[in-house]
Structure formats: structure tokens, C-alpha cells
Design brief:
The chain is α+β, with helices and mostly antiparallel strands and about 260 residues long. It has ten helices and nine strands. The longest helix is centred in the last third of the chain and has 22 residues.
């Protein structure tokens, strides 16, 4: 783990850019809404001056990131967002590499198998997903974003992310669990994850659910992604979970070899 002083000194100063922040907030809001929104509703939701909101919406519309219906005077995300998303996926080989492995794991073990990008120290992003045919559905989709220290993946981020214990503890206090954990107990699980290169969240992040995760590591040993499998608590016994984790680790190593060749 890093020295706390070194970490603080290495953080670059980020100057606020209000126009960019407001544009991103608008895109995020429209992405969450199931129906298009008018400019006044958008401005009210984000506490923006309506005229400012309108100028930003017009710029986003010009770039095809937002679509404007002239009849209803409402806005929604535009086709340009799909182009950006496609470019992001194509620039990142992990989703394409991990998808066959996720499909295999979900079919064989009856789990929800997930590929997660943990490149951002503050959040993890679901970038690939495969669901089994059993009547168990985890509320997660491609593009879902979560705090980086949450659940089984969070233990791996703490173990292989290079952050100081002080930083980790501060961020840990903000996490929300179905069954909250004491930091000392959780940190012991982080040490276990670092030693064994896998982690398990049993009945804590989501009550009644077991979540296993393994890291995809760079050649320098830093975490870049995780492979995650989730199932109901009683769906797999201890021996089955051990075998599942072993298969996940094999897939993680194969993907790392291809990503960082």
C-alpha cells in the first residue's frame, strides 16, 4: 500500500469546468430517465438556470449526444451516445475477451457472471454480463456503476489497487451494505484476498447472495478488472464454490495474458 503523504502529493489539482460538469449532469439525468424530459424539468432537477440549461442542451443536440423532439419539445439521449459507447468498447479489449468466459461460467454454474472494470480508483463499472436461465436475477446491467470498494470486487481493489490503508478506511466508512461490516473484519478479508487472489462476499453486500470475485492483474501486479459470479446463498456448496473460483482464476489469467501481451 502507498504512503499516505506520497498519495496526497501525487494527486493533481483539478480545476472545475462548470459547463462540462453541467453537460455531464444532463447526460446522466437523461440516461436515468425512462421518458424524455423538457428543458424546465431538466433545469429544475439539476438546479440549473433554464436559459443555461437550454444552451447546453442545444450544444449537446448539435453533437448528436442528445435528441430533441420538435413536437413535444422534450429531450432524450441521442444516437451519438451509442457511437461513443461503441468506440469505448472497441478501444477496450476486455469486454470482448471476457464475454465467452462469462457465458461459460453462467451456463455451467447457474450464476450471474460479470466483467468489471476497476481502472477508476473511485468506482467500478460493469462492462460485460451473462445471466443464467435459473430464476435468479441480480439487479445489474452493463454500464452500472458502483463504489470501487464495494462487495467482493472491493476487497480485491483494496488488496491490489495500491492505495494506503488510511485512504481505504476513509472510503470504506461511506459504503452501504445490507449487513454492515466492521472495518477490521473486512480488512482481514482484504489480506486474505491479496494472499489467495480471490474474494468472497457472503450475505453482506446483498442479503441472501454469495458473490465471488477474482482479479485480472497487470504484469506489475496491479488490478485492472475483475471477474465476478453471483448466486443465491444455498445454490452452491463449499466444494462447488472452490471449484468455481478455480475456474474463474484460470480465465482471469488467460485474459490477462491476452490483454497485456
Amino acid at each position: 500500500m502507498k504512503n499516505p503523504t506520497e498519495s496526497v502529493l501525487s494527486v493533481p489539482r483539478i480545476r472545475p469546468v462548470p459547463a462540462v460538469s453541467r453537460a455531464i449532469a444532463i447526460l446522466r439525468l437523461l440516461g436515468k430517465m425512462r421518458t424524455p424530459m423538457g428543458v424546465n424539468a431538466i433545469a429544475q432537477s439539476l438546479k440549473l438556470v433554464p436559459s443555461t440549461c437550454l444552451h447546453i442542451l442545444r450544444a449537446l443536440t448539435e453533437e448528436k449526444l442528445v435528441s430533441f423532439d420538435r413536437t413535444t419539445k422534450h429531450y432524450r439521449l441521442g444516437a451519438g451516445m451509442l457511437t461513443l459507447a461503441r468506440s469505448a468498447i472497441e478501444a477496450n479489449a476486455f469486454p470482448l475477451l471476457v464475454q465467452p468466459a462469462l457465458d461459460q461460467l453462467s451456463t455451467k454454474w447457474g450464476v450471474t457472471a460479470i466483467g468489471v472494470d476497476v481502472g477508476d480508483p473511485d468506482q467500478m463499472v460493469v462492462v460485460a454480463l451473462s445471466r443464467s436461465n435459473i430464476p435468479f436475477r441480480l439487479h445489474v446491467d452493463v454500464g452500472s456503476v458502483f463504489p470501487s470498494l464495494l462487495s467482493a470486487t472491493g476487497r480485491l481493489v483494496a488488496a491490489f489497487g495500491g492505495q494506503s490503508e488510511a485512504e481505504i478506511k476513509k472510503r470504506f466508512q461511506k459504503l452501504r451494505w445490507d449487513k454492515p461490516l466492521d472495518f477490521k473484519v473486512w480488512n482481514k478479508e482484504v489480506v486474505f484476498a491479496q494472499k489467495n487472489q480471490y474474494s468472497m462476499d457472503r450475505n453482506t453486500y446483498i442479503a441472501g447472495v454469495t458473490i465471488a470475485a477474482v482479479p485480472v492483474l497487470t504484469p506489475t501486479g496491479k488490478i485492472s478488472h475483475t471477474i465476478v459470479c453471483a448466486s443465491l446463498m444455498d445454490a452452491l456448496n463449499k466444494k462447488q464454490l472452490t471449484t468455481l473460483v478455480g475456474e474463474m482464476q484460470v480465465q482471469a489469467r488467460l485474459i490477462a495474458d491476452q490483454l497485456f501481451a
